[in-house]
Please model this.
Amino acid sequence: VALDFDARTALVQELTDPSHPEREVWFGVALFCTMAFDSAPHLSTVDALEQGHPGLSILGFHHPDEDRSWRFPHFSYQRQLATVHPQTTTTGNPA
Model:
């Protein structure tokens, strides 16, 4: 915590260098920390957003609709990629 950015970067580079004998351990630690920050895997996504989880907020993760479900009215590829199956329920589940 007391290290400045350059010193932290150098430390991570040293610990994850292919020649470091504990490299796999440090990669695991880094992945765990990143996952916890980015996705709050110990919480449901809705709960994490309601609690203001910092990683999801910084990533700009959108909040669900009032019924706690996500709907995306605009296609990310600017076109519909597939039609909805005729037996799909109004909640998006297969019949």
